[in-house]
Amino acid sequence: MSKNSKTRTAAEHLVSLADKVYHYRKDLMPERAVEDLIRFRDKLILALNEKSDDASLLHRMDDLEALMKKHGGNIYPQKFIPENVEVILVAAILAIGVRSYFFQPFKIPTNSMYPTYNGMTTEVFNEQNPRPGTLQSMLRKLMLWTSAYEIKSPGEGEVLLPLSKDGHLAYVDSGSGRDYTVVIKNDLGMKAVTLKLPQEFSLEENVIIKTFYPGLKSYSDVLSYSRQNGLVESFSNGVFLKTGKHVKKGEELFNFDILTGDMLFVDRISYHFVKPTIGDPIVFRTDEIPEIKGDFYYIKRLVGTGGDTLQVDAPYLIRNEKPISGADAFLKNAGREGEYPGYSYYGMLKQGDTVTVPEHYFYAMGDNSSNSSDSRVWGFVPETSVVGRAFCIYYPFTKRWGLAK
User: For the purposes of burial, counting CB atoms within 10 Å of the CB of 237, is it exposed (0-12), middle (13-18) or buried (19 or more)?
Assistant: First the structure.
């Protein structure tokens, strides 16, 4: 770009700023200053139209700039925020509009829809599956957003797992997440180490089994085995599960990664034009469901609409006296394909029970039927509570990435 071209560009920009100062500041400026602003601006425009040389342009720019520096306020001299506030506001309004009416981001918190969608999952590392090296760990962090947990024993002894009254692990709410304390017991007493975990994360189904009970398949199997063999014991400070594993001080207790839950875009516009259909992965608010205390967003599979009658005949889900259809997950659950467990008896749908969905309500269930708190537990979903359906998984970058199923 030639020198004259650069000067002309700067002059044109100054004229634009002068217009902005005039429109935003004329009521605050002295009358004489407003008149001078118009006069200096018009002279610069005339010089531009006459294609004056750089010296003439710069002379007129100096006059206009001096006046604008004196009376321009927050508009001139330029400052980032005032100059860009309109752009920032427009961008914010567009973002809010898109989120509210078109596509809302949503993170899967639990594994009630597994394996169609993942909540937080884990990978446990041991001698057979060693932790990846630094470069591979960095790549995993980028692709899967992993969080590493490598916990050492604070002392020597047997590993004990504190239990709650219902037999699950005794977590403590820490406000920002939840804590779980593991105890190491020997003849001299007990020492403890605390794991600080995300709020929705559970150690039971993967970490505990693979770390201490690799021969068992589920946490319910762990409890049954432990109770039958006298490995659930009460001490003065609570009830503990005796793992039978003895460790030395500094020895590895836990070594695992937590992988983030699937992040979705929720289509919030389609249901303004079409009704939800059986098999849709619907996202809804819980504020109008009395049995759920709180206002959350849930994602479940739509299995029944007003007037439908539902029944479980494990592993099948029966809708209006026929095996349900409308989604691949229905067929995979019926055939217990891969990691789909089949539909199980629970809550409202115990063996032999039927449920009829009232008009203007939906019945929603998780694809992971045996580990899903859904309409079988807390009842029907009002049609008005549905905000949209899962559209696509945009992160992490796994085989599930892409359009939602």
Answer: exposed
- CA-closest candidate to residue 243, choices 210, 198, 284: 210
CA-based R_g, the chain, Å = 32
Determine how β-strand 157-163 pairs with β-strand 238-247. Answer: antiparallel
Place of tokens 């217009």: 19
Residues ≥6 apart with Cβ < 8 Å to 130? none
The per-residue pLDDT for 298 is 93
Q: Is the pLDDT of residue 256 over 80?
A: yes
Contacts of 28 (CB under 8 A, 6+ apart): 73
Q: What is the pTM of this model?
A: 0.65
Whether omega for the bond prior to residue 109 falls within 30 degrees of 0, making it cis, is no
3-state secondary structure string, 125-157? CCCCCCCCCHHHHHHHHHHHCEEEEEEECCCCE
Query: In angstroms, rounded to a whole number, what is the distance separating the alpha carbons of residues 63 and 35?
Result: 13
Question: Two tokens at 81?
Answer: 């925020």
* pLDDT tens digits for range 191-228: 999 999 988 888 987 899 999 998 887 888 888 899 99
- Cα distance between residue 260 and residue 307, in whole Å: 38
In the Cβ-directed half-sphere of 341, how many Cα atoms lie within 13 Å?
A: 17
pLDDT band at 282 (very low <50, low <70, confident <90, very high): very high
Q: Please give the Cα distance from 297 to 144 (Å, whole number).
A: 23
Interaxial angle between packed helices 31-49 and 54-71, expressed in degrees from 0 to 180 and rounded to the nearest 10: 160
How many residues comprise the chain?
405
At residue 88, the pLDDT reads 60
Strand pairing partners for 192?
Answer: 183
- Phi first, then psi: give them for residue 367, nearest 5 degrees: -65, -30
DSSP 171-238: -EE-SSSEEEEEEEEETTEEEEEEEEE-TT--SIIIIIHHHH-TT-SSHHHHHHHHHHTT-EEEETTE
